[in-house]
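> call design_seq(struct)
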């Protein structure tokens, strides 16, 4: 497995786990009937995003210690997979921005706006990673 592919796997796992941690911190308040305006979501969101960034760095280092790659520079195939995966994943960033814009027009609570953006960031990471992993498993995009 290439250095780049290992990074995609770790990014995917961290995105899913990080969002799962966030949901586990925020959903109990909603389920308990706490009004949305009173749900403490800002700091859990900040900490899970920050934690995911730190985890990404640490996991990448640990993966390279445990399973060293022969080289850390990507080739042309890696660059094309990266570019295409990001292009596909960015669609959810745009969807999140549009959703937030529409929610702001209708003056929805900041909780919903922030969570729509965060969800779309996570979906973008997942879609981008899955696209890249499929390309790595199939030998690149020329095989499609």
């Amino acid at each position: 497995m290439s250095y780049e592919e290992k990074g995609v796997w770790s990014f995917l796992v961290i995105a899913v786990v990080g969002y799962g941690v966030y949901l586990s911190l925020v959903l109990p308040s909603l389920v308990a009937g706490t009004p949305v305006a009173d749900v403490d979501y800002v700091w859990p969101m900040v900490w899970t995003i920050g934690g995911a960034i730190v985890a990404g760095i640490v996991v990448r280092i640990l993966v390279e210690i445990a399973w060293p790659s022969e080289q850390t520079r990507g080739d042309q195939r890696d660059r094309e997979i990266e570019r295409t995966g990001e292009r596909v994943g960015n669609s959810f960033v745009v969807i999140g921005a549009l959703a937030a814009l529409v929610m702001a027009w209708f003056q929805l609570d900041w909780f919903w706006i922030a969570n729509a953006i965060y969800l779309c960031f996570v979906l973008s990471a997942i879609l981008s990673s899955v696209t890249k992993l499929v390309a790595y498993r199939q030998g690149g995009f020329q095989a499609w």
